[in-house]
Amino acid sequence: MLIDTQLVANAPVQFLVAGIGDALATWIEARASAKAAATTMAGGLATQAGTALAELSWRIIHENALSALDAVRDGIVTPALESLVEANTLLSGLGFESGGLAAAHAIHNGLTAAPQTHGLTHGQKVNIGSLTQLVLEGAPRAEIEDFVEFTTRVGLPNTLTEIGLSPDDTRALEAVAAAATVESETIHSMPFPVTADDVVAALTSIERLSRSIRAEKGLPEPVEYEAAH
Ligand SMILES: [Zn+2]
Q1: Burial class of 193 by CB neighbour count within 10 A (0 to 12, 13 to 18, 19+)
Q2: How many A from CA of 24 to the centre of ligand 1?
Q3: The CATH number fitting domain 1-100, selected from 3.40.50.300, 1.50.10.20, 4.10.910.10, 1.20.1090.10
Q4: d(CA 228, CA 23)
Q5: How far apart are CA 105 and CA 108, in angstroms?
Q6: pTM score above 0.90
Q7: How far is the CA of 122 from the centre of ligand 1 (A)?
Q8: What is the mean pLDDT of the segment spanning 7-26?
Q9: Contact criterion met (CB below 8 Å) for 45 and 39
Q10: pLDDT tens for residues 129-174?
Q11: Considering the chain, what is the average pLDDT of its residues?
Q12: For ion ligand 1, residues whose CB falls within 5 Å
């Protein structure tokens, strides 16, 4: 793998934000997939190495993302940016290939059934999938709070409002959930069965959940996303 980090530093910051959203899902999905002993993207069982690299990418992203984003805003390469790029590409790439995908990417794929979200990047939609997966897992409150706080600071969406949807869009959310749970989807690599109804409930819940965490932590309210036509 060869990446010119000056090119990354010169690119619009939103591209790096999106890459962070995609890479953050790696550990969330790899650990679920390992728990389920599901088949990985590389076609076998998860290796300890793949799962460990996925976790390492999560840690490096948490330590470096905010500094790396500031470096890109200034168009400069710093050690934080170098570390983040390694985590976002090499570690996350190996982690998902040899660790496995689960609900987050399946929900991303499901979101393609909602035309409202079409203008968003892959990483933005994956981030909605990651938070929804944490809800499906019944993840500890502290973990969900950290995820919402961190991704809000990074500039990733964690509410339906920010992807052009609302909890009242029942039909759209049902279409998303149906697409996310088709037989071939990686949501079935979760360590427990997940139905379309579970996904509708989890997706609906993230609006109030994220808004209340953001309010508690003094973070900005979500800004409505409007698809360009
Ligand atoms: Zn992805």
Answers
A1: exposed
A2: 9
A3: 1.20.1090.10
A4: 26
A5: 5
A6: yes
A7: 6
A8: 97
A9: yes
A10: 999 999 999 999 999 999 999 999 999 999 999 999 999 999 999 9
A11: 95
A12: 22
* Ligand 1 mean position, distance from CA 139 (Å): 21
Task: Give dist(CA 205, CA 167) in Å, integer.
Answer: 8
**What are 45's strand-pairing partners?**
39
Give me the active site residues, please.
22, 105, 108, 122
Cα(31) to ligand 1 centroid in Å equals 16
CB contact at 8 A, 184 and 105: no
CATH of 102-229, one of 3.30.2130.10, 2.30.40.10, 3.40.640.10, 1.20.1090.10: 1.20.1090.10
Residues 185-228: pLDDT tens digits? 999 999 999 999 999 999 999 999 999 999 999 999 999 998 76
Centre of ligand 1 to C-alpha 126, Å, is 7
